[in-house]
Amino acid sequence: MELGIVIFLFLVVFFLSGLPIFFALGMTVAASLIVWGQVPVTVLFQQTMQGIDIFSLLAIPMFILMGEIMTKTQVVDDILFICNVLVGRIRGALGHVNIVASMFFAGISGSALADTATLGAVLIPAMKKSGYDAEFSVAVTAASSVIGPIIPPSIGFVLYGALISGVSISGLFAGGILPGILLGVSLMIVTAVLSHKRKYPVAVFTFTRREFYRTLLHAAPALFLPVIVLGGILGGVFTPTESAAVAVVYTILLGFFYYRNFTVRDLVTCVHRSMLTSAAVLVIIAMVQPFGWLVALGQVPQTLSGFVLSLSQDRMLIMAVLTVILLMLGAVMDANIIVLVFAPIFVPIAMNLGVDPIHFGVFYVLAAIVGLATPPYGMCIFVAAAIGDVPVSRAMKAILPFVLAEIVVVFMVAFIPGITLFIPRLLGMVQ
Q1: Which residue from 117, 118, 314, 338 has the fewest beta carbons nearer than 10 Å?
Q2: What is the mean pLDDT of each run of 10 residues along the chain (431 residues)?
Q3: Dihedral over alpha carbons 138, 142, 144, 145 (to 10 degrees)
């Protein structure tokens, strides 16, 4: 029996069995090798070690730790004040504040779930108290949180860059900036339309010039963090992994000596939480390497790519099909799984079409990340609904206009490479 068919059959069986993802992948590799019988099963262990022996993967636990530390400080309060200054005097102000705060927070945490939990805990109760529908408050919080993993630093880009050879993580970071901003703008348009239609309140946010400058000055060290991370990476001062280490040290110093509300106990808690989160990701990566090796051995990517290209050579049509497939996967599967398991299969199709690697990488991660706010899986919906005490079914219905706006952005990024490649070109990362 062909190896590719064996892999597919076992993958379906073990995925549908309800086993944890990493175990299902490992069992797929082991069972396929046993049935195929041409390669010893011991290769599974060799490939597993190679899967996690990648220097750039060190950035993942450090970026996660950085986000955990920053959420323990009062930087969120300062960011919300600045966002209120920017958009706090228009109809539906708190909805816009929610979105803009997510864009600021993206450069600090890089995590959609952290964004939902941290900002949602503050803004959802405030929005409900101010007269916003509970469902709307939950929906705008969940939808805007997907901006976090797109605007750098992005764990999704680190995973993609570590998995796909020849793709610059720095280039992916640069390419994600404009799509992330475009996501925010699209959500603000939806918020403005719904706010005028439903007559949401116009916030009367008052502040003195002195208060604004004092808050801006107080928040400046935290807001400078993305500058350190992105400036160092894009300026060639250090690699993404080195930037993550610098960011962790910087945030620890901020917590202890600047905000002075961060204790050793808080640090231990943050390290513990980041270790658990990182382990959940890295154990999957460890299993993805032997799976990817086996898929390549079975020539699955080449076979699939040849089949797709035999049907059509139209780049736009194939990109549209890939977009729909990724959005459908995102609706039922975790974004990291989509990146780790399916990227090695889909990337050869894009490369054979002549799609720029950075453009496809940003598009791929963006399409997968949108799934975090897409029913029925959408983990961000579940987190926000729990905070807002709203039935998940009602939250899923309320989020649809926002998800549609995000899907439009995904298609724009897929079909207009300039959105992704504009900044990398300015920095000389692509021709």
Answers
A1: 314
A2: 77 80 84 82 78 77 81 72 74 85 73 76 83 90 88 84 85 92 94 90 70 78 78 78 86 87 88 84 80 78 73 83 86 79 85 90 92 82 87 90 95 94 87 69
A3: 140
DSSP 3-state of 91: strand
Contact call for residues 50 and 289 (beta carbons, < 8 A): yes
Tell how far CA 372 is from the center of its chain.
8
CB 73 within 8 A of CB 261: yes
* CA pseudo-torsion sign 336, 342, 347, 350: negative
Distance CA 395, CA 391 (A): 6
Helices (H), 338-378: 343-352, 357-370
Residue 429 structure tokens? 């990362």
Tokens describing residue 10: 């076992």
Using an 8 Å Cβ cutoff, are 24 and 14 in contact? Answer: yes
DSSP summary character for residue 147: G
Which sign, positive or negative, has the C-alpha torsion 178, 179, 185, 188? negative
In the prediction, which pLDDT does 88 show?
A: 67
Of 67, 61, 81, the residue nearest 250 (C-alpha)? 67
CA angle (206 as vertex; 201, 212 as ends), nearest 5: 130
Rounded distance between C-alpha atoms, residue 1 and residue 6, angstroms = 7
Whose tokens are 């280039």? That residue is 171
